[in-house]
Amino acid sequence: MELYLDLVSPPCRAVYLFAEALKIPFEFKLVDLSAGQQYNEEFGRLSIVKKVPVLKDGSFVLTESTAILEYLVQKCSVADHWFPADLQQRARVNEYLSWQHLNLRSHCSKVFLLRTLYPFVMGSEVPKEKMDTAVEDMKLSLNMLEEKFLQNKPFILGNKISLADLVAMVEIMQ
Questions:
Q1: Which of 22, 64, 141, 170 supports an S-S bond with 107, CB 3.0-4.6 Å?
Q2: pTM, full prediction
Q3: Transmembrane residues, as ranges (predicted)?
Q4: Rounded CA gap, 167 and 174, in Å?
């Protein structure tokens, strides 16, 4: 199995950390996003969406980090707490995974990009109002993570880590 990743990307880090932590054998294939390798012809033949992460398992190719994580859970028979068989518990994991793309991921990424890329590209600091708005949006998402999903529990499902927690962690780390 091959994983095409750039660890600067939180979704790639989630896939990488999961595979490493569970000792899932894979070949790491670096796709350097800063060099634009996701747009080269070779990678384009592998993935028309030109984004990482990508999993290649024989002739089967899969994109999207959450789909890859769910595939690995089912293929590799990992502990149930990662993606529970219980319908309602699994629905909670899926609820978070569905919510996070346009909330925590989007807002954390915006703050990260404004703090790191904007000054480099624009040659100046981000206007204070723009940064304040981005930080406020991120804080609202973090509060929602705590109030709706964690609710004073150590993990989203309770006492054991799940894919939802792993995906949340890499965004917060960023």
A1: 141
A2: 0.91
A3: none
A4: 11
d(C-alpha 11, C-alpha 4), whole Å: 12
Measured in degrees and rounded to the nearest 5, phi and psi for residue 155 equal -135, 165
163 within 8 A of 96, measured Cβ to Cβ: no
- Residue burial 121-144, b: 16+ Cβ < 10 Å; e: rest: eeeeebeeeebeebeebbeebbeb
The residues pairing with 52 across neighbouring beta strands, listed in sequence order, are: none
C-alpha pair distances (Å), 105 with each of 111, 122, 129, 154, 162? 10, 23, 21, 20, 17
Tokens of 119: 């000054």
Residue 10, class by beta-carbon neighbours within 10 Å (0-12 exposed, 13-18 middle, 19+ buried)? Answer: buried
pLDDT of res. 122: 87
Sign of torsion, CA 4 19 147 88?
Answer: positive
Strand order in the sheet with 27-30: 27-30, 2-5, 54-57, 60-63
* Secondary structure (DSSP) of 29-70: EE--GGGTGGGSHHHHHH-TT--S-EEEETTEEEESHHHHHH
> 103, 43, 36, 101: which is closest to 67 by C-alpha?
101
Residue type, 110: K
